[in-house]
Amino acid sequence: MSEPLVIGLGGNVGDEAELAARFRAAREALAMLGGVRSARLYRTAPIGPAQPAFLNTAVRIALDHAQPDELIATVLEIERLLGRDRAREARWGPRRIDLDVLVWGARRVRTPELEVPHPRLAERRFALAPLADLVGADFVIPGVGPVGASLAQVGAQGCEELAETW
C-alpha cells in the first residue's frame, strides 16, 4: 500500500462554482498519477492582505513511485494550466488556484522547490481540516505530531464546511 500523498487545493479568484470547477480539473489531472480520494470542501478566512474568503480542500493520491522533482513539476504544471501565474501574485494574496503538497507519508523532503510536510501546515486550519478528512486525526505529521493535536491548536481560525463532495 502506498504512503498517503495529500495535496491541498485552494483559491479565491472567481465565484465558488468557478473555484470548484478548477478543483475538479486539478483532481482529474492528479488522478492520472494514481487513484484519488477527495476531502470535504471548506470556505476559509484568508491569511495575509485583505481579500475574499478562500475555498479549500485536498486530495489523497495513491502514488507508488515518484521522485520529489517529478511531483513538484507536475503540481506546478497543473497550476499553470489552470491559470495560475506565480510571477504576478503577491505573497499570500488572491489566487485562481494553489496546490500544495501537504504530506507524503512519513517522508521529509527538502529541496529548493519542495518542502514536505508543508512548512506551515500545522499553523493552518484550512489545510489541516481537509488533511484530517483524508488521513484521520491520528496520522502523525513528520516532525510535528498528530493531525488532531495540530487542529486543536488552530481551532479558532475561520473554517466552514461547505460540502461533503465536490
Number of strands: 10
How many domains comprise the coordinates? 1
Helix/strand order: EHEEEHEEEHEEHE
| Number of contiguous helices | 4
- What is the first-to-last residue Cα distance? 26 Å
- What is the arithmetic mean of pLDDT? 94
CATH architecture: 2-Layer Sandwich
Helix content: 25-40%
* Class by SSE composition: alpha+beta
Q: Which residues sit in consecutive blocks of at least 5 with pLDDT less than 50?
A: none
Q: Rg from C-alpha positions?
A: 15 Å
Question: CATH superfamily name?
Answer: 7,8-Dihydro-6-hydroxymethylpterin-pyrophosphokinase HPPK
**Basic shape:** globular
Sheet with most strands: 6 strands, antiparallel
> Which class in CATH terms?
Alpha Beta
Q: Strand fraction band?
A: 25-35%
CATH topology: Alpha-Beta Plaits
Structural notes for this entry:
There is one protein chain. The protein is of the alpha+beta class. The protein has one domain: 7,8-Dihydro-6-hydroxymethylpterin-pyrophosphokinase HPPK (Alpha-Beta Plaits, 2-Layer Sandwich). 28% of the residues lie in helices and 25% in strands. It has four helices and ten strands; from the N terminus they run βαβββαβββαββαβ. Strands 1, 2, 3, 4, 5 and 10 form a six-stranded antiparallel sheet that branches. A two-stranded antiparallel sheet has the order 6-7. Helix 3 packs antiparallel against helix 4. The longest helix has 15 residues. The mean pLDDT is 94.
